[in-house]
Write a structure and sequence with these properties.
Elements (H helix, E strand, L loop, with lengths): L2 H8 L9 H14 L4 E7 L7 H4 L3 E8 L2 H10 L5 E5 L15 E2 L1
Parallel strand pairs: 1-2, 1-4, 2-3
Protein backbone atom coordinates (compact mmCIF):
# COMPACT_ATOMS: atom_id res chain seq x y z
CA UNK A 1 0.00 0.00 0.00
CA UNK A 2 1.41 3.40 -0.94
CA UNK A 3 1.17 6.56 1.17
CA UNK A 4 -1.88 7.99 -0.60
CA UNK A 5 -3.78 4.72 -0.19
CA UNK A 6 -2.86 4.55 3.50
CA UNK A 7 -4.09 8.09 4.13
CA UNK A 8 -7.29 7.34 2.26
CA UNK A 9 -8.15 4.72 4.89
CA UNK A 10 -6.71 6.69 7.80
CA UNK A 11 -8.73 9.79 6.87
CA UNK A 12 -11.92 7.95 7.82
CA UNK A 13 -10.83 7.68 11.46
CA UNK A 14 -8.10 10.29 11.78
CA UNK A 15 -10.12 12.73 13.89
CA UNK A 16 -11.62 10.10 16.16
CA UNK A 17 -8.90 7.55 16.89
CA UNK A 18 -6.55 7.82 19.86
CA UNK A 19 -3.32 9.35 18.62
CA UNK A 20 -1.14 10.87 21.33
CA UNK A 21 1.47 12.17 18.87
CA UNK A 22 -1.16 14.04 16.81
CA UNK A 23 -2.75 15.46 19.96
CA UNK A 24 0.59 16.50 21.49
CA UNK A 25 1.48 18.33 18.27
CA UNK A 26 -1.70 20.41 18.53
CA UNK A 27 -1.05 21.20 22.20
CA UNK A 28 2.57 22.22 21.49
CA UNK A 29 1.62 24.36 18.50
CA UNK A 30 -0.93 26.29 20.52
CA UNK A 31 1.39 26.70 23.51
CA UNK A 32 4.29 27.98 21.41
CA UNK A 33 2.33 30.33 19.15
CA UNK A 34 -0.56 31.54 21.27
CA UNK A 35 0.98 34.99 21.90
CA UNK A 36 1.80 35.71 18.24
CA UNK A 37 -0.01 36.66 15.05
CA UNK A 38 1.17 36.15 11.48
CA UNK A 39 0.41 37.42 8.00
CA UNK A 40 0.95 34.34 5.84
CA UNK A 41 1.18 30.73 7.02
CA UNK A 42 2.18 27.64 5.10
CA UNK A 43 0.76 24.58 6.81
CA UNK A 44 2.55 21.46 5.55
CA UNK A 45 0.60 18.24 6.04
CA UNK A 46 -2.66 19.86 7.09
CA UNK A 47 -4.44 16.51 7.09
CA UNK A 48 -8.07 16.90 8.10
CA UNK A 49 -7.60 20.51 9.20
CA UNK A 50 -7.05 19.76 12.87
CA UNK A 51 -4.64 22.67 13.22
CA UNK A 52 -5.92 24.74 10.29
CA UNK A 53 -9.02 25.81 12.21
CA UNK A 54 -6.81 27.20 14.97
CA UNK A 55 -4.22 28.73 12.62
CA UNK A 56 -6.83 30.97 11.00
CA UNK A 57 -7.32 32.61 14.39
CA UNK A 58 -3.62 33.56 14.40
CA UNK A 59 -2.95 34.26 10.70
CA UNK A 60 -4.33 36.57 8.03
CA UNK A 61 -4.10 33.75 5.49
CA UNK A 62 -3.16 30.08 5.44
CA UNK A 63 -2.04 27.91 2.55
CA UNK A 64 -2.78 24.40 3.81
CA UNK A 65 -1.21 21.59 1.80
CA UNK A 66 -1.41 17.83 1.99
CA UNK A 67 -0.56 14.92 -0.27
CA UNK A 68 -3.86 13.16 0.45
CA UNK A 69 -7.00 14.16 -1.45
CA UNK A 70 -9.06 12.30 1.13
CA UNK A 71 -7.59 14.23 4.06
CA UNK A 72 -8.03 17.50 2.15
CA UNK A 73 -11.65 16.69 1.42
CA UNK A 74 -12.38 16.39 5.13
CA UNK A 75 -10.40 19.56 5.91
CA UNK A 76 -12.36 21.53 3.31
CA UNK A 77 -15.62 20.42 4.90
CA UNK A 78 -14.45 21.38 8.40
CA UNK A 79 -12.73 24.68 7.58
CA UNK A 80 -14.59 26.95 5.18
CA UNK A 81 -13.02 30.28 6.14
CA UNK A 82 -11.95 32.29 3.10
CA UNK A 83 -8.59 32.95 4.75
CA UNK A 84 -7.59 29.35 3.93
CA UNK A 85 -6.56 27.90 0.60
CA UNK A 86 -6.23 24.13 0.39
CA UNK A 87 -3.90 22.52 -2.09
CA UNK A 88 -2.81 18.99 -2.90
CA UNK A 89 0.99 19.04 -2.89
CA UNK A 90 3.77 16.55 -2.30
CA UNK A 91 6.66 18.14 -0.40
CA UNK A 92 8.99 15.35 -1.51
CA UNK A 93 8.70 16.71 -5.08
CA UNK A 94 9.70 20.10 -6.46
CA UNK A 95 8.16 22.95 -4.47
CA UNK A 96 6.55 24.62 -7.46
CA UNK A 97 3.11 24.87 -5.84
CA UNK A 98 3.68 28.45 -4.66
CA UNK A 99 6.05 31.35 -5.02
CA UNK A 100 4.62 33.23 -2.04
CA UNK A 101 6.60 34.14 1.05
CA UNK A 102 5.48 33.02 4.49
CA UNK A 103 6.26 34.29 7.96
CA UNK A 104 5.10 31.03 9.56
CA UNK A 105 5.63 27.50 8.34
CA UNK A 106 4.21 24.60 10.35
Amino acid sequence: MNIKEAYKYWSLQYDTNINKTRDLEAISLRACLSNYTFDRCLEIGCGTGKNTAWLITKCDSVLAIDVSDDMLSIAKQKVTDKKVSFLNADITSNWDFTDEKFDLVV
